[in-house]
Amino acid sequence: MLSRLLSRRPSGKTIPVGLPSHQELRPVALSPEGHKKAAGLFCERYSHTDWIPDVGHRMARLLEAELKGDPKWESFLSQAAHCRNQCQQTALSPLMPPAQRGKARWMNFQPLVSWGLNVIQHPMPSWATPGEFKRLFGWLDDYEEELGDYWMMMHLGQETCRIIKQGGIESKSLEKCRQMLKESVHGARLRRHAAGIREYLEEVESKLRPGEKLLGSSDIVESIFGKYKLLMERSPQKAITRLILAIGALTSKRTPDLVRQAMETVKMEAVEKWFGKYVGESARSIRQKAFA
User: Fold this and answer.
1) Which DSSP state fits 8?
2) Is the distance from CB of 189 to CB of 149 less than 8 angstroms?
3) What is the DSSP letter of 238?
4) Rg (CA), the chain
5) By CB count within 10 A, which of 43, 160, 214, 290 is most buried?
6) What residues contact residue 77 under an 8 Å CB cut-off, 6+ apart?
7) Where are the alpha helices (DSSP H) in 122-187?
8) What mean pLDDT is predicted for residues 263-280?
C-alpha cells in the first residue's frame, strides 16, 4: 500500500496536504513489510522516493521472529485455545481467554497475554469453585515467567508505535524510543528483541534529512482503503470500478456545493479516459463480451 499524500502547486513544488505552504515534504513510499517488493519497484521508478517501513508491521515482524516456532509459546497458544473451549457454557466462562485472531495475529496477541497474567496475579473470585478454577486455569502457573517476557516484548513494540505515530519519524521521537528501550529492557530475550527495534530506528533515521519529519505509519491510508471497501460492498460488481475515484473524496469534507461543483466540472468522458488508461477493462466486461 503505497501513499503520497501530497498536492502539487503550479510552481511544481510538492506540498503536503494539511500543512502550511512553507513546510515542504518530499514524497515517500510508506508500506507494510509484506509490500516491500512493490515498494522497491515504486522507488526504482520514482528515484526521488524513499521507502519507509510501517512501524506497526515491523514491530509485528520482530515479534514473530522471536516467538514463532518457540515450543513454550506454541504450547501456550494451544493450551489457551483448549481452555477457551472448556470454559464455554460453565460458570467460569466470564474468565475465559479471548479468541485468537487468524488475521494480523502478531499485532493482536497482547490481550491474550494480558489475560494470562491477570488470571495468575489476581486472587480467585469468591464465587468460583476452587476445584473447577484449578482445573481450567491451573496450567497457567507453568507460564508465569514467560508471559512476563511476552508482555514486555509486546509493550516495547506498542510504545515504539505510539511514539512514532504521534510524533512522526524525527530526531526527538527516535531518541524517545531509544530512551524507553534503555530503561525497560532486562534479560537476554528482551535485549535481543530491543536490538531489533533499534535496528529499525537506525534504518528509518538513515533516511532522514536535517530538520525533516516523516510519516511512520500507514494507518491513515489503510483506513481510507477500508472505507473504499465498504463502498465496494454496496456495488453488485465485486471488482475495481470507476468508484475507485471516490477515494479522493473520502479524505475531504463533502458539501452540497462541492458535489455540485464536481458534477459540473468533471466530464464523464474524462472519467472513462482515466479508467481506461490506469485500470483497463474489468473481468465482468470481458466476460460479457465473451458470452455475447
Assistant:
1) E
2) yes
3) -
4) 25
5) 160
6) 100, 112
7) 130-137, 144-167, 171-184
8) 87
Three state DSSP letters for 14-73: EEECCCCCCCCCCCEEEECHHHHHHHHHHHHHCCCCEEEECHHHHHHHHHHHHHCCCHHH
Q: Which helix (H) or strand (E) holds 277?
A: helix 268-278
Taking the C-alpha atoms of residue 30 and residue 176, their distance in angstroms, rounded to an integer, is 22
Which H/E stretch holds residue 6? strand 6-8
Alpha carbon distance, N-terminus to C-terminus of the chain? 36
Residue type, 82: H
pLDDT of residue 28: 67
Contacts of 88 (CB under 8 A, 6+ apart): 96
| pLDDT at residue 9 is higher than 50 | no
Question: How crowded is residue 219: how many other Cβ atoms within 10 Å of its Cβ?
Answer: 15
Three-state DSSP class for 91? Answer: coil
Residue with cell 474489468: 282
User: Would you call 206 exposed, middle or buried from its count of C-beta atoms within 10 A (0-12, 13-18, 19+)?
Assistant: exposed
Place of cell 478454577: 133
| pLDDT of amino acid 20 | 39
Q: What confidence tens digit (pLDDT) does each residue in 159-168 have?
A: 999 999 999 9
Q: Which of 72-81, 100-109, 172-181 has the lowest mean pLDDT?
A: 100-109
Tell whether the model's pLDDT for residue 26 goes beyond 70. Answer: no
- Cα separation, 237 vs 172, in Å, equals 47
CA distance linking residue 292 with residue 290, whole number of Å = 6
pLDDT above 70 coverage of the chain, percent: 87
